[in-house]
Structure formats: structure tokens, C-alpha cells
Amino acid sequence: MIIAEQKPFKEIYESVKDSEKLLVLGCGTCVTVCMAGGEKEVGVLANQIRLAAGKDGGKIEVTEHTITRQCDEEFFDEGASEKIKEADSVLSLGCGVGVQHIVQLYPDVVVRPGVNTQFYGATLQQGIWTERCAGCGECVLERFEGICPIARCSKSLMNGPCGGSSNGMCEVDPENTECAWQLIYDRMKRLNKLDKLMDYQPPKDWSHDRDGGPRSVSREDVLF
Amino acid sequence: MSEEQYKSGSRLEQVLTSGNFALTGELGPPKSADRETVEKKANLLKDSVDAANITDNQTAIVRMSSWGAGLIAKECGLEPVMQITTRDRNRLAIQSDVIGAAAMGIKNILCISGDHHSFGNHPTSRIVHDIDSVQLIATLKKMRDEKKFESGDEIRNTKKSELIEPRIFIGAAANPFADPMEFRVVRLAKKINAGADFIQTQVIYDMERFKKWMDEVRDQGLHEKTYILAGITPLKSAKMAQYMKENVSGIAIPDHVVERLSEAEDQKAEGINIAVEQMQELKNMEGISGVHLMAIGAEKSVPGIAEQAGFLPRPTQYEKIS
After folding, report:
1. Which of A78, B51, B104, B167 could tie B79 with a disulfide, CB 3.0–4.6 Å?
2. Which residue ranges form the domains of chain A, and what is each CATH number?
3. Using CB atoms and an 8 Å cut-off, which of residues 167-186 of chain A contact chain B?
4. Does B125 contact chain A (CB < 8 Å)?
5. A-contacting residues of B 11-70, CB under 8 Å?
């Protein structure tokens, strides 16, 4: 899923404090699971804004709403649409995709992001999420037996570890980040495939990544 | 051998292929447009080493470029080994630097991934790593031997013009002390297969562990496929040794080395004594073709160390030593 983190309150408040009718709009998918922008976070944040505005003597009318997915038009039902159109600003707690999708669907509304979108990751344990995929557009996991050096090595090295691997951890963040190449080595050993480590991995074709320009996928077979 | 038979014809290549025991040094470029400092360091090193590595934004701190400082060194009579990291430049920029450097007479290039930029003075910059160090080695080999860029395009101005490839002696780094330990010789083999003509190792303090690594290297016959130069840096004090032991990934310093320094009256001199002893031991180690003496910021001490270790004068004739 997409992992996001709520922006510092001060930054959020600065971006919305001049609005009169503010809608805090949550998203019920990824950001709900990573506890950054679901219904619960919408409630807390809306109250914080009301309190801060009260202190400032400002008058922001804050409403709250959460839809299943901000990245899909079908979830912007009549109820959601009405609330968005009534507001002069929307504070989206969806990821960067959600923010832009609202802008596209409701061109007259000002939309502010409430979270910093981080990465594609997994839940390690409650409260800890970690990056697993870099969305490079050309998956190489087969070559590394399911551990991605592009996403998980600090230098995205494809042909083995640098000198900064120590006791299984990466020197860039030795407390939290495992060395991807230690993981790859251990995995190959477990599967009895250490020979695979000798394979030369040629320079990657980054044209499938962002380097080829903004990407889109179109599937003729499912188009209406 | 005539000039044409060499891969690059660099002094380092000639020293190594003639069977001489090589000595390379290191020159850290300044953090400004200060030409004089480069000249001063180059003049200190030029008669004591066969060539010197010119580091590429070492420790991810902006410095004079390795080709810029390398050209100044060359003008002073010190042969540069231009270092290229994959951290800051993509394959376009790197290849253009390589042909530019070759056109200016730089003949040795060392390929490394480089220290992560989060440790340097521009931690908010974007990291590149379009290619990794092994891919960089393969790219240089392709440029030199196949006369083609990484993309496959031929290295010539037009379809009809002459192919003018960079003639370079390709170097790579090896770290016998980092984890995963079992991967270290594999990694060396990959670099050799990719085209590394010579290898410079990480700084060695734990000679026992290094010897074990070399056993494995010799078992696989890798020392016969490349020239291995062993990395040496004199320790300045017991305090420095302790700090490095605790804080620098990929550097192993045994307790007995720290103890020897702390017991010495003159710790700096003792650090040099240790380095000299190591150099002499390495000179007699099967499979080691030279020493890479890294005394960054202490270039002044290099001639003395080389002298004390019996490495001077440096060879000027490169007849094959039988």
C-alpha cells in the first residue's frame, strides 16, 4: 500500500487558516491502514483546526468526511460531492494521488495536502511501516529471489553490497534499515542458489521508471 | 612492450605489467578553487608513488572535481588515477567525463559507488546511482575494448569518422572486511569479470583477516586475473584507531593494534611503524601486486613512509622482471 505521514500541524494550519469553509476529507484505503488520513485522523485533525482557529479568533467552519478511495471517481458520491462544493477549501488526507484527483474532479475548489506521501510499503508491526517497492516499472524481483535492491539498498546497487554493510544493517541508518544485500545473500543461501549471486546485472532500463516521463497504463482489453 | 600493446600505457599499468611492486598514493582535492594546494600535494607525492588516486567528492563533500585536480597533478608530473563514483552522475555524464579525461591524457580510472550523500555536506541532494560500480567497470571496458558507449553507439563523431576510444586502465575497490563476509570474494570476482585491471583494497589493519581473504582469493585464482593493491593508512593515534573501530563501517581494527599505539611514547611515529611493517609484509605476500597508501591530509608523510618501507626509488624503467 501507499504509506503516508501526516504533515506537522503547524504546516497544515498555515495552509488552511484563511479559508472560511473547510472540508477535511479522509481516504478509507491506504492512509487509513497506515493511520495517517482515515476517518479517525480526520476527526482529530478537524478538532485541532477548530481549536487553533478559535484561539486565533478566526472563523473556520470545519466539516469532516471520509470516502473509500480518493483515487477513484466512483467513490465521490452525491454526499461527498455536495460537501466538497460547499467548501471553499478541501484539506485532503489522501495521498498525493487523492489531492490531485479532487483537483481534477472539482476544478473550482482549493485543495491542500494534509499528508506527506512516502512510499509503497508494508506494515512491519503496528506503528511501523517500511519501504518495499520503488515502482520502477520493470520488476527485477525474480533475479534477487524476492528481495528488491532497487527499493531496499540505499544506493540501489544491483551487483552486490557496498562497504557499508555491517552486522546485517545499512550504514545509512544502522538502527532501522537492513542491508538489502545481506538479505539477498541470506535468501540465496537458504534456497541453495548462491551461484546466482555471480550473475552480472547490466545497467537497468530506467525508462520504465519516472525517468521516462510521467507514466500511464492503458489496457485496451478492459476499456469501455 | 610497445605503447600499443598496453591497455592504456599508463605508468601504473607499466609498473604492474612489468612485475614491479607498485605503490599508489591518494590526493584529496581541496574544497575550493585552490590550485596551489593540489600542486603542493602533487609535488610531495610525485617521486614517492607511481600514481595517485584523485578522489571524487570524497565523503560526499563537494570538492574540486577529480578530473580537474587530476589534470593539475598530471601537469606537476604526478600520474592521476581519476576516481569516479556512481553517486553523483548518470551514465551520460560519466561517459562524457571519461572521454574528456582520456582526451586530456588521464589514463587510470577507479570505479566506486561512493560514500552515501547523507554523510556529506549536501544531504538534501538527489542521489543518482543510475549504474553501480560493477556496471561502471563494464561500461569503461566496453568503451575501451569494444569502442562503444553503454548504449551500443560507436565512439566516433560521424559514421565515417575514426573510432577514438578512451584508453584507460580500469580500477576497482574491494573491501575484505565488510559484511556479508561470504560475499566479499564473490564481489571481487564480479568486478574482475566485469573488467577490473587492478584492485585497491580497503584499509587493512587486521592482517590476519586479510590473509584469510587472500587465501580465498588465491584459491579461486583471482590474483592471476587482476593486480591487487593492498590499502594502507597510517593510524595517527590510539584515539583515532578507537574511533574508527567503533564508528566506521567496513573497517576492522584489532585490539592489539590499538594497544600497541596507546603504549607507544610517540603514537604518530608508531602508527607509521605499523604501516611500514605492513607494507613490507604485503610486499612478500603471494598475489599482492602493490600497496595503495592512503594518507589523505598527510601527504607530507608519504615520502618518509615509502623510504622507511624500502619502496624508493620508484621504478622508471619498465623492463619485465623475471
Report:
1. B51
2. 2-118 (3.40.50.2300), 134-203 (no CATH)
3. 167-168, 171-172, 174, 179, 181-182, 185-186
4. no
5. none
Sign (positive/negative) of CA torsion A113, A57, A82, A37? positive
Cβ neighbours of B113 in A, within 8 Å:
155, 157, 162
- What is the overall mean pLDDT for chain B? 95
CB contact under 8 A, A158 and B183: no
Low-confidence ranges of chain A (pLDDT < 50): none
What is the nearest CA distance from A212 to chain B, expressed in angstroms? 13
Residue B216 has pLDDT above 80, yes or no: yes
> What are the structural domains, with CATH classification, of chain B?
3-234+275-308 (3.20.20.220)
Contact A161 B173 (CB under 8 A): no
The nearest alpha carbon in chain A to B115 belongs to A164
* Burial track B188-215 (b if 16+ CB lie within 10 A, e otherwise): bbbbbbbbbbbbbbbbbbbbeebeebbe
For chain B, percent of residues with pLDDT exceeding 70: 98
Contacts with B87 (C-beta within 8 Å, 6 or more apart), sequence order: A155, B57, B60, B113, B114, B115, B116, B117, B127, B128, B129
